[in-house]
Amino acid sequence: MPIKTDFYRFWDRSLMLNDLKNSRHFGQVGKGRHFEALLWTRSDYGFVVCRARSEFLDGLQTKRRQWLDRIHRTSRLSHPLIPPMEAFFEGEDLFYVKPYCEEALAVRPYSSELASLTDSLRAEGLVVDDYWQMRARRGQPFVIDWSDLMAV
Questions:
Q1: Pick from 92, 83, 91: which is nearest to 46 by CA?
Q2: Which of 8, 32, 106, 130 has fewest C-beta within 10 Å?
C-alpha cells in the first residue's frame, strides 16, 4: 500500500494528542536543535511526532506561524522525496508529524532528485537552509528534516 495512503489511514490527531497527554505509545527517537522527535505507534504504523523546542524561532508565535505556513506549502507539493506530513499548533506547542522511516540513507545517490526538490521548493519561494537528511520507509526515500525550511 502506498506510504501516503497508509499515513492517512492511521493518522488521528486527537488520538495522538490524547496518547501524548497520557504518555502512552511513545518513545523518544531524538532531540535536535529545533525539535524533539518522538515515535508514536498506532496499529503497527510508526509516526515521528516532532514537537518544537521552546527556543525554536526564538519562541515567537509569529515566526512559528510563518514556519507552519511554509511546511503546509511544502507538504502540498507533489515530489517523491516529500513525505506525507501534518503540522499544527496545539495550545502553545508546535508539532509536525511524518512517517517513521527506519533506514538511514546516503544523500549522494539521490543528488538529481534533491536538485529537483530544490527547484520545486524555490518555485514556491522556499529553501532548506541546512544539509539534507534522508531516510527510507519500506524502500521509499524521503527527506526527513524540515526544521530549517525558510522563505527565500
A1: 83
A2: 106
